[in-house]
Amino acid sequence: MINKPFTAPDCASCTSRHTSVFADLGTGDLEKLPLEKGCNFYKSGHTIFSEGSYPSGLYCIHKGKVKIFKNGAEGKDQILRFAKEGDIIGYKAILSDQPYSASATALEDAVVCFIPKKSYFDVLQLSPQLALKMMQLLTHELKTAETRIVELAQKPLRERLAEAILILKETFGFEENTTTIDVSLTREDIANIIGTATESVIRLLSEFKKDKLIELNGRKISIVDMKKLIKTANIDD
Amino acid sequence: MINKPFTAPDCASCTSRHTSVFADLGTGDLEKLPLEKGCNFYKSGHTIFSEGSYPSGLYCIHKGKVKIFKNGAEGKDQILRFAKEGDIIGYKAILSDQPYSASATALEDAVVCFIPKKSYFDVLQLSPQLALKMMQLLTHELKTAETRIVELAQKPLRERLAEAILILKETFGFEENTTTIDVSLTREDIANIIGTATESVIRLLSEFKKDKLIELNGRKISIVDMKKLIKTANIDD
DNA sequence: TACCCGTTATGACTTTTGTCATTGTTTACT
DNA sequence: AGTAAACAATGACAAAAGTCATAACGGGTA
Predict the structure, then answer these.
(1) Closest nucleotide to A159's CA, by C1' atom?
(2) Quick check: B152 and A149 in contact, CB under 8 A?
(3) How far is CA A49 from the centre of its chain?
(4) What are the residues facing B198 on neighbouring strands?
(5) Which chain A residue is nearest to residue B142, measuring alpha carbons?
(6) If you ran DSSP here, which 8-state letter would residue A124 be given?
(7) Per the CB 3.0–4.6 Å rule, which of A93, A232, B150, B183 could disulfide with A55?
(8) CA B161 centroid distance within chain
(9) Subunit contact B154:A128, Cβ cutoff 8 A
């Protein structure tokens, strides 16, 4: 069996919720949410939803890491963003009532709750705060996307890779008491973040290592010289 | 004088409104809008708002064409999108209560109305329809931005330029009874859409002309062979 | 343990795209 | 209408990044 049903955690006591878009909901509004809420276990590598299919609700990640990506030309994926505990995904398709424009796959074993469309819209209707929160989430995503457009359009590979590493660090943090980024991505995944060939990523990572910016250990990346790495990324915003 | 005040058109009778995000507002809600609304005339090339400055309202384009762009590294601009009659701009900054993350400049003489933050939020508060409309506008922008990310990351220049021409056609349409796209952009502007050097755009446009995809007349581009152009763009979504 | 498959690594080479220099052409302004 | 400044065009060259081929690694499984 691929997606095992999983005992749904209680939203009211979910520790992820406090960092999520639902954080400021009153308990009154919140009670609307868990109605019919489902929860599934996804094994690493398995798909939560697929580009082109129709959504019937949105997903809230209880545990695990997820990549959101689009299928580009000639079968090459483009990773748009990552999601982790407390993040909601698939809300764009729900709000616009259109098929998913991207796919979501678990990067490691994950537990993901499902909130049916109707429950969600009920809360949205009742809570202007949630509506505003959603708008702010959307504006934030949009701003991030626009920054990425500028970078893909203008920055050389070396800078994009350095920045990608920094963003992975911001998103997933370090493993406890280390400077090792807490996520495992293949070189191909990394290539699909910054829009380049796998070989180019491999070569550049080796260079970064030689230049003592990072340390490599299989798929784990450790940041050795954060300052130099930031400089290499040539960040201007 | 740079931005002459301009007699504000009446929102209730504004022909642009019906294609805008305000289209479905009842007249009751609408009456909130024109309160304190201002209107300015911007000469071609002049700035409506600048990246980094703080917003105090949003803008609704009554007439004219506008480019929205970010300043990238080494002084190179990146055009994010265009706006025309009936479009609102600067709403992202208002919703997120942050400085503008991009600048807006008139591409031709333009008349742009200004809706103060407070008026806007008043209507937003009263009208769940407008809130939903805004969310849908945001999701649409986000989807467009994500498609652009994939294209900038994966497509070669030739395809990106062909697609840019098609998008310009979609956005601005043809001049009456012609196949000439109704907008004048410098080669540099075009380069700043697709993220390349001006010289590359010049060279590729000449190629497209040689290949009988387009015709060039100063800054005006006419589409000669739409089918081939679409094929050249290699669109897959 | 040994094997196997997906991944990582590296080299040689090609293609694409950018940069610089120079010249010709428009545009916008007075 | 005249003029300066911005823009467009083109060539020669350089740099960046992609492709292809091949080899080595590595971790899970029979």
Answers:
(1) D16
(2) yes
(3) 14
(4) none
(5) A142
(6) H
(7) A93
(8) 18
(9) no
Shortest CB distance from A80 goes to which of B102, B135, B146? B146
| Listed range (A67-71, A73-77, A164-168, A226-230) with the worst mean pLDDT | A73-77
Nucleotides of C under 7 A from a protein CB: 7-11, 16-21, 26-28
- Residues B90 and B203: their CA atoms lie apart, in Å, by 35
Per-residue confidence (pLDDT) for residue B122, from 0 to 100: 87
CB-neighbour burial class of residue A97 (10 A; exposed 0-12, middle 13-18, buried 19+): exposed
Q: How much is the average pLDDT of B142-151? A: 97
Which nucleotide's C1' atom has the smallest distance to the CA of B154? D18
Interface test with A, best of B78, B130, B142, B193 (most A CBs within 10 A): B142
Cα–Cα distance for residue pair A223/A210, rounded to 1 Å: 13
Q: What three-state secondary structure class fits A38?
A: strand
